[in-house]
Design brief:
Layout lengths: L1 H9 L3 H14 L3 H12 L5 H21 L14 H26 L1
Length: 109
Amino acid sequence: MSMSWAGLFAADGEAFDIMQEGAFKFFGKGPEYSEIPMALAAGITQSPLLLARSSLAIALYSIWVLFTHPRAGSKYAPPFYEYPMLFVKALNVIWTMGMVMGPVLWAEM
């Protein structure tokens, strides 16, 4: 489990960049948001259900950050006319998370 998340943070690509930014902001929200993912990454907790829940939460939070937080060089959230392209990027994030975590979850079951 921890190796799949390590791969997520080491990979290059737009979807991975979105998830990396979202994950760091997710973990920065406080210990109640980072405790379970860190226990999974460290191998302390071994629960496929918690892995799936945490991965989905991070992916969804990353998408929320994509739509609501300012981009580099801007003080404002993306304008409304950028939402169709952001929606495509959000689908790519979900697809990428599934391709990374799907085999891990399958192996853990």
